[in-house]
Every structure is written in C-alpha cells, then in structure tokens.
C-alpha cells in the first residue's frame, strides 16, 4: 500500500522551542497506522510540497509566534484559514508553501496545520516548560486527525 497520509514535523531541534514539531512527530511515529509517512523538515516550502505530494491527508506541526504571545497555546487550522493566524517561527515556510501549492494545484485533499506558540527559539536543546507541556495534547490531536480519516481499521476512507 502506498502512503495515503503524511505527518510533517517542522522545526530545528537546536533552536529550543522551534523543535516542538519534531518532538510531536517523534512521539506519534510508533502509533500511526500503515500508510502514514512521518517527515521531519526545516519548513522550506519546496520540502513541504515534496512531503505532502500525492497524499490525501497532510498534518503539519510547527512552532509559531503570535502577539500577544502565550507559549504553549495550540492553534488548529484547516488550510483555508491559515492567513491571519500565528506565523511560523521560520522566516519563510508554511504560508508560502501553501500559496505555492495552491498555484501549482498541489495541495492534498485535506491539510491540517497544528501550531504551538513558542517562548524561546534561541540556540540550545530542549523545549521550554509551557511548550513541552503542549506536546502530548498536540500528539493526541494528530492521532485523532489521522484516525478520523480512516475507516476504523487503519485503512483510509
């Protein structure tokens, strides 16, 4: 069976909270059904397009900044609601990838974006406490999104 879904963790584990997307996908990797690929990436738009090419469902987990900031707060969006929300903690990334994919007719049938507001993206390892506390909640949301897209037996609907 080819991959029908992908879970994409975006971030840099050497920039503290920016690694939260990678932490979430690491947590869910052993729990996902067959046919769901897991990808870790830095969020560069062409890598995101490559990661979700040819799948029906893509779930992207990324760090975000927002004003006013509330580190650890989770945002759950569908692709058509992305603009105007919290922005990626990377200079260029997910919003640009979505716009490029739209222009190229390369969006998956369903694109779910989960962002976690961050406190510290300076150099270093490990997540700040409020961001680390959000990881289990976001991991459960990823599993629910994938589960909702299956027929109950792990096979895609």
From TrEMBL:
One of its GO terms (molecular function) is aspartic-type endopeptidase activity. Gene3D superfamilies: HybD-like. One of its GO terms (biological process) is protein processing. It comes from Streptoalloteichus hindustanus. Keywords: Aspartyl protease, Hydrolase, Protease. This is Hydrogenase maturation protease. PANTHER family: HYDROGENASE 1 MATURATION PROTEASE (PTHR30302), HYDROGENASE 2 MATURATION PROTEASE (PTHR30302:SF1). Belongs to the peptidase A31 family.
């Amino acid at each position: 069976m080819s991959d029908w879904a992908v879970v994409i963790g975006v971030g840099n584990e050497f920039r503290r909270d920016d690694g939260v997307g990678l932490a979430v996908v690491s947590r869910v990797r052993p729990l996902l059904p067959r046919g769901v690929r897991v990808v870790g990436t830095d969020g560069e738009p062409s890598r995101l397009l490559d990661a979700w090419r040819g799948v029906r469902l893509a779930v992207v987990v990324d760090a975000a900044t927002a004003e006013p900031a509330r580190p650890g707060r989770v945002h759950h969006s569908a692709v058509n609601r992305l603009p105007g929300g919290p922005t990626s903690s990377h200079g260029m990334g997910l919003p640009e990838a979505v716009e490029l994919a739209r222009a190229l007719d390369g969006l998956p049938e369903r694109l779910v974006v989960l962002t976690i507001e961050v406190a510290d993206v300076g150099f270093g390892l490990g997540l700040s406490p409020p961001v680390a506390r959000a990881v289990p909640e976001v991991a459960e949301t990823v599993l629910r999104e994938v589960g909702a897209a299956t027929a109950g037996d792990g096979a895609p609907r």
